[in-house]
Specification:
The protein is mainly alpha-helical. It is 61% helix and 0% strand.
C-alpha cells in the first residue's frame, strides 16, 4: 500500500501516481533534514541536472495538491453550511420546548379541575368495547356449526376439530355462560362433537386397513402382471368343471367391509405409495413467491390454523399415510376420545380383518374363474410340468396294461397338485403370502396408531394425575395405559392379527386350533388354574397354546367360550370360514410346506416393526404355532404316509419284476423308457418328494432327510434280499466273496466299466501290467472243475433280474448323489444370500429303529446302493465265465481222433454259444452297453485259456481233431463278435492265439523246435511241453526232443 494511494487523482492524470512513487522516501519523513540534499547537490558533478530534477518533483507535488484542493473544496463548503443549519434548528427547538411547557402547565390546571368525570367516561368506553367484542364473538360462534359442516364436507377434519375445540372453550368463558341465545349453539356443537368423532374414527379406520384416500394401498393379486401362474389356474380349472368366462380385471371398490360398519372398498384407495406430495397444492403458491424450498402442508391441513402440530406436520418427512394417521390421532386427542376410539378399534379389529381376508380370497376366486374358458389344452399342458414323472412314462405299460406314472402317483400319499412343486402348493404360498403382506401393511398402521395412542394417553394421564400419585401408579403402568386407550395396544392388535392368520392357516391345513394338539389343550387347562407371573408371560410357551391364548386374550365374555367350543354357536364374535377352497385346487395338512416360508417372512417383518417394549411378543406367535404343528403333527403324519407308500412299493408283486419290452433297446433316460424296476423307481419318486418337502421347510430338513434315510435303508434291505434270493448257494456268489478272487477282479482292467459315483465318473486308469489278470482268473476258475449244473444260475429270469436290479440300483445311487449335490449347493447359496433363515435343528425322529451304529448320511446310502449294483454285475460276469468253463470242461475228456472232417462245431460249443446269445438278448434291454461289455467280456479269455489248457489232459489228437478245435474257435469268435458291446478285435486276437497253438501240432518236431527257438515267449514253457506230450498219429517224436526243448525252454 503506497503512501499516496488514497489521493483523489483523476484518471486522466494517473501518471502523477507513478511520478509520486519515484519521489524518494526521505522527502516524506516527519522530521525532514535538508542538509544531506544540499551536500549531495553541491558535491554532484551535474548540479544543474539535480536542481532541475528537484524542480520537476516540486511541480508534480504542486499539481497533485491542486487536484486535492479542487476535489475537497465543495465538500468543505457543504459541511460548513450544514453545521450552521444544525445550530439554527437547535435554537428553534429550544424555543418550542419552552412554549410546550407553558401549554402543559395550563392543561394540567384545566384537567385537574374535572378528574372524576373523565374516569367515568373512560370506564364507559371500556365497557362498550367489551360488549362489542362479546357481540362479535356471539355472532362468530353462531356461524361455527355451519363452518364446521363445511370443513367436514371438504375433508378438513383437523381444521374442523380446531374450530370446535376453540368454540367450546369460548362458550365456557364467564361472560358467555349465561347467554341464553347460545344454548342452541351449545347443543349443535355437542352434536357436532359426536359427528366429528365418528367421522375422524371412520377415516382412521379406513386408513388403518389401507382403504382410505391417502392410504398406501397394496395392489390386489389380479393387478400384478403374471400374478397367477398358468399351472395354478390350470390345475384349479381341471378340478372344477363349471362353465368358464373370459379373463377380465376386477374393478376396484366392488368389495366392501361390511363387518366394520363403514362402507369402504377393500381393494380401493390410491396408488401403491399413496398420493404424491407434488399433487398437494399449498395456498402459499398463489402469492407468486418461490416456495420450492419451503415444506408444503398436506392437503387436509390447508384450512387449519397454524399451531405446533401443523408446523410439525410441515417439517415431518414421514409417508403421507403416516401423516394422515397422526393427524387423525391428534384429532381424537383434541376431542378427548382416545379411550372410546381405542375400544371401538378393538371391537372392530377381528371382524374387519376377517372380512378383509375373505374379500381378498373372493376377489382371487373371481379372478381365477375368468381363466377357465381359456384353459383348455393349455391347462393340460401346464399341469404336466407338475407331474414330471408322468410325461413320457405313460407310453410304457405294465403287463396288466396300467401306466407306470399312474402307479407312481397312486403310491404317493399326495396328488400331483399337492406335491412339493404342485399347483396347490404354489397357489397356497402365493395366496397366503399376498394376504400376509396385506396384514403386514395393516399392522404397520396399527403400530403407528398404537404408539401414538399410548404416548398421548400417558401424557394426559400425567397431566391429570397429582404428583403424589405418580409413585403409586408406576407399578401398574401397563394396565393403566391399556385402560387409557380402551384396551387397544400394539400387542393386542398383533395378537388379533396373528390369531386370524392362524385361523386361515388352519383352514388351509384342514385343522382346528383346538384339535391341532392334544397336549396343548392339557397344558392350557393346567395353566388356566393359576395366573402366570410376569417372567413367565415374557417367555414363549411350549406346545400349541398359541391358539387358546389368542382367543382368551382377544375375545371378551362369551366370545372366548364360543371359540373354546370350536365356534359352533352363532354369535357376534364367531367368524365363519374364509372360503379358501374356492381358490385352492386342494387343501390339506401337506400345505404346511408352502405355508412355512410365508409365515417365516411374515414373522421377520412383524418383529422388525415391533417397538422395543413389545419385542418379546415376536418370539411367541404364528411361527411358533406353525413350527409346533409341523413338528408334532405334520412330520409324524408325513412319516406314516410315506412309510406306507414305501412299504407298498417294495412289497408289491411287480416291485422287482423286470418290466422292459424285450425288443426295445436300452436307453439311459427314464423319461424315454429306462427299465428301472418299478419298486426302486417309486422309492426314488417318494424320496424326491420328501426332499422337496425338506427344501420347502429348511428348519425341518434334518428330520425329513432322516425319513429318507429310513426309507432308503428299508429299500436297500429289500433289494439285498432279492439279490440274495437270486444268487443263494450259487458258485458265482461264493466266488466274489473270496478275498483272492475279489482282489483279482478289482485289478481286472474290465473293472473300469463298473459303476462309479458322479464325482469320480470316467476317472478309471487301466494299468498295462494288469493284462495278465484274466489268465489268473481263468486259472482259478479251471481249478473249480468239474463244475456242476446246480451251482450255476440257469434261469434266465434271475439273470435278467440281476441285470435290471444292478441298473436300477445304479440309478438310485446316482439320484441320491444328485440330490446331495443339489442340497449342498443350495445350502451354500442360502448361507450366502439369506441370513434370516433359521438354523436347522436336528430334532429326534420318533419313528426310527434303534441302532448302536452312527446314522448314515445320504452319500453313504448311495455308496451302499452302488456296491450292491456292482455285486450284481460281478455275479453276472463270473456266471458267464463259469458257464464257459462248464461247457468247455467236456473238451478235456474227449479224444479228437475223427476219421473225417466235421462240418459243425462240437455240441458243447453250440450249447455255449446258444446260452451266451440268448442271455445277451434277454439282458440287453435292461443294462447299458458298457455293462454288457463287462458281463460278457470275460468269456473269450476263459474260453481261450480253457482251450489251451485242455491239451494237457488230452492223450490223442489227429489232424481232423485240430481242425475241429479250430472250427470251434471260429464259431465262438463269430458268436462273441456278434455282441455289439464286446471288442471284436480282442476276441479275434485271443482265439487266433488258440488256433495258432493247435496249428503247431501239424508241424514236425524239428520244425516245432525251430519255431520255439524263434518264438519262445509266444506260449508258456508248459504249453510248449504239452505239444510234445500229446500223441499225434503220424508224428514221430525223437527221444531227445524233450531234452532239446529243455535246453531252449528250461522249466
Amino acid at each position: 500500500m503506497g503512501l499516496f494511494d488514497g489521493l483523489p487523482v483523476p484518471p486522466d492524470k494517473a501518471y502523477l501516481r507513478d511520478d509520486l512513487e519515484n519521489v524518494d522516501e526521505s522527502w516524506t519523513v516527519a522530521r525532514f533534514d535538508s542538509l544531506p540534499h544540499v551536500v549531495r547537490i553541491l558535491t554532484s558533478k551535474d548540479r544543474d541536472g539535480e536542481i532541475q530534477a528537484l524542480k520537476d518533483q516540486s511541480d508534480i507535488v504542486e499539481e497533485v495538491v491542486d487536484e486535492v484542493v479542487q476535489t475537497y473544496h465543495g465538500g468543505f463548503n457543504r459541511a460548513i453550511q450544514n453545521y450552521s443549519q444544525i445550530l439554527r434548528l437547535f435554537s428553534e427547538s429550544t424555543q418550542s420546548v419552552g412554549k410546550l411547557k407553558v401549554d402543559l402547565g395550563n392543561a394540567k390546571r384545566v384537567i385537574s379541575a374535572r378528574n372524576k368525570q373523565l374516569q367515568q367516561l373512560w370506564y364507559r368506553s371500556m365497557t362498550l368495547r367489551h360488549i362489542i367484542s362479546l357481540l362479535d364473538q356471539i355472532e362468530n360462534i353462531a356461524q361455527v356449526p355451519t363452518r364446521i359442516n363445511k370443513l367436514i364436507d371438504e375433508n378438513q377434519l383437523y381444521a374442523a376439530v380446531q374450530v370446535h375445540v376453540q368454540s367450546a372453550r369460548m362458550l365456557e368463558r364467564e361472560g358467555l355462560q349465561t347467554v341464553g341465545a347460545l344454548q342452541d349453539v351449545r347443543s349443535e356443537l355437542a352434536k357436532l362433537r359426536g359427528v366429528l368423532f365418528y367421522k375422524v374414527l371412520e377415516d382412521l379406520h379406513s386408513h388403518l386397513y389401507n382403504t382410505g384416500e391417502y392410504s398406501s394401498a397394496t395392489p390386489s393379486m389380479n393387478e400384478k402382471d403374471d400374478a397367477i401362474p398358468t399351472t395354478t389356474v390350470a390345475a384349479f380349472a381341471m378340478n372344477n368343471s363349471q362353465s368358464l368366462s373370459r379373463r377380465t380385471r376386477l374393478v376396484k371398490g366392488d368389495n366392501h367391509v361390511g363387518a366394520s360398519g363403514f362402507a369402504s372398498s377393500v381393494d380401493g384407495g390410491s396408488s401403491y405409495d399413496g398420493h404424491d406430495d407434488d399433487d398437494i397444492h399449498d395456498g402459499a403458491d398463489n402469492t407468486g413467491k418461490d416456495t420450492k424450498n419451503i415444506p408444503r402442508l398436506p392437503a387436509w391441513l390447508l384450512e387449519c390454523t397454524p399451531d405446533e402440530f401443523v408446523e410439525t406436520m410441515r417439517k415431518n418427512e414421514s409417508p403421507l399415510h403416516v401423516k394422515y394417521l397422526q393427524t387423525m390421532v391428534e384429532c381424537l386427542c383434541m376431542l378427548d376420545k382416545l379411550a372410546v376410539a381405542g375400544a371401538i378399534i378393538c371391537q372392530r379389529l377381528r371382524p374387519t380383518i376377517h372380512e378383509i381376508i375373505t374379500s381378498k380370497i373372493k376377489a382371487q376366486a373371481e379372478y381365477v374363474n375368468t381363466f377357465r374358458s381359456g384353459v383348455g389344452h393349455a391347462a393340460q399342458t401346464a399341469t404336466t410340468g407338475l407331474q414330471y414323472v408322468k410325461g413320457q412314462l405313460q407310453k410304457e405299460k405294465h403287463k396288466n396294461g396300467t401306466s407306470l406314472a399312474g402307479s407312481l402317483m397312486a403310491v404317493s400319499p399326495v396328488t400331483p397338485v399337492m406335491a412339493p412343486m404342485g399347483a396347490a402348493q404354489s397357489a397356497a404360498k402365493e395366496l397366503l403370502g399376498f394376504i400376509l403382506d396385506t396384514i403386514v401393511r395393516i399392522f404397520e398402521n396399527h403400530v403407528v396408531v398404537g404408539d401414538l395412542l399410548e404416548s398421548k394417553s400417558s401424557k394426559q394421564a400425567h397431566m391429570n394425575t397429582p404428583k403424589s400419585m405418580v409413585g403409586q401408579m408406576s407399578g401398574n403402568l401397563d394396565s393403566e395405559a391399556s385402560q387409557a386407550t380402551g384396551g387397544y395396544t400394539i400387542g393386542f392388535s398383533m395378537t388379533v392379527l396373528q390369531s386370524e392368520c392362524q385361523q386361515l392357516i388352519c383352514e388351509l391345513l384342514r385343522a382346528t386350533p383346538e384339535a391341532a394338539s392334544a397336549d396343548a389343550a392339557v397344558q392350557t387347562a393346567r395353566l388356566a388354574s393359576k395366573a402366570p407371573s410376569k417372567e413367565k408371560r415374557d417367555k414363549s410357551e411350549d406346545g400349541l397354546t398359541f391358539a387358546f391364548r389368542f382367543t382368551d386374550a382377544t375375545v371378551p365374555n362369551q366370545g372366548a367360550d364360543l371359540i373354546r367350543h370350536g365356534r359352533n354357536r352363532k354369535g357376534q364374535n364367531v367368524q365363519e370360514g374364509y372360503g379358501s377352497a374356492s381358490v385352492l385346487p386342494e387343501q390339506g395338512i401337506y400345505l404346511a410346506a408352502s405355508v412355512y416360508r410365508p409365515v417365516l417372512q411374515f414373522t421377520d417383518k412383524i418383529a422388525s416393526m415391533l417397538p422395543q417394549k413389545y419385542s418379546q411378543l415376536g418370539n411367541d406367535g404364528l411361527l411358533t404355532f406353525l413350527e409346533n404343528f409341523i413338528k408334532d403333527h405334520f412330520l409324524p403324519a408325513m412319516f406314516v404316509d410315506y412309510r406306507k407308500g414305501v412299504q407298498q412299493a417294495i412289497s408289491s408283486p411287480a416291485a422287482f419284476r423286470p418290466r422292459a419290452n424285450p425288443t426295445a433297446a436300452y436307453t439311459p433316460s427314464v423319461s424315454k423308457g429306462r427299465p428301472v424296476l418299478q419298486g426302486l423307481l417309486t422309492i426314488d419318486f417318494l424320496a424326491k418328494e420328501v426332499l422337496g418337502w425338506a427344501q420347502a421347510m429348511p428348519k425341518f430338513s434334518g428330520d425329513l432327510v432322516k425319513y429318507v434315510q429310513t426309507f432308503l435303508e428299508r429299500t436297500y434291505e429289500r433289494c439285498r434280499a432279492s439279490y440274495t434270493e437270486a444268487v443263494l448257494e450259487k458258485q458265482s456268489y461264493m466266488l466274489i466273496g473270496r478275498h483272492d478272487f475279489e482282489n483279482l477282479m478289482r485289478h481286472d482292467p474290465a473293472s473300469a466299466f463298473l459303476p462309479t459315483s458322479l464325482s469320480h465318473a470316467n476317472n478309471h486308469i487301466v494299468d498295462a501290467e494288469t493284462d495278465g489278470v484274466d489268465l489268473e482268473v481263468s486259472a482259478l476258475l479251471m481249478k473249480l472243475r468239474p463244475i456242476k449244473q446246480e451251482s450255476l444260475i440257469r434261469d434266465n429270469n434271475k439273470l435278467v433280474l440281476l441285470a435290471s436290479l444292478s441298473d436300477s440300483l445304479e440309478y438310485i445311487a446316482d439320484s441320491i448323489e444328485r440330490q446331495v449335490l443339489i442340497s449342498l449347493f443350495g445350502n451354500l447359496s442360502a448361507k450366502a444370500s439369506d441370513q434370516t433363515e433359521i438354523e436347522v435343528k436336528q430334532t429326534p425322529v420318533h419313528h426310527k429303529r434303534n441302532s448302536s451304529l452312527p446314522p448314515k448320511d445320504l452319500a453313504s446310502f448311495a455308496e451302499d446302493y452302488r456296491k450292491l449294483a456292482i455285486d450284481c454285475l460281478k455275479v453276472l460276469r463270473v456266471e458267464m465265465q463259469l458257464e464257459t468253463v462248464f461247457n468247455m470242461q467236456v473238451m478235456a475228456t474227449r479224444e479228437y481222433l475223427d476219421d473225417q472232417d466235421a462240418e459243425e462245431p462240437d455240441d458243447y460249443i453250440i450249447s455255449l454259444i446258444t446260452h451266451i446269445t440268448r442271455r445277451d438278448e434277454v439282458i440287453a434291454p435292461f443294462i447299458a452297453p458298457t455293462k454288457r461289455n463287462y458281463i460278457f467280456g470275460g468269456i473269450c479269455a476263459v474260453a481261450s485259456h480253457a482251450s489251451i489248457k485242455a491239451l494237457a489232459e488230452m492223450k490223442h489228437i489227429n489232424l481232423f481233431g485240430v481242425q475241429q478245435i479250430c472250427r470251434n474257435t471260429i464259431a465262438l469268435e463269430q458268436a462273441l463278435s456278434a455282441i455289439p458291446s464286446i471288442d471284436s478285435e480282442s476276441v479275434q486276437m485271443r482265439l487266433d492265439h488258440v488256433r495258432k497253438y493247435y496249428d503247431l501240432l501239424n508241424m514236425p518236431v524239428e520244425a516245432l523246435l525251430a519255431f520255439i527257438t524263434e518264438h519262445d515267449r509266444l506260449f508258456t514253457a508248459t504249453e510248449y511241453y504239452n505239444l510234445l506230450k500229446v500223441e499225434v498219429p503220424g508224428r514221430e517224436v525223437p527221444e531227445d526232443a524233450k531234452a532239446r526243448m529243455a535246453d531252449i525252454l528250461p522249466i
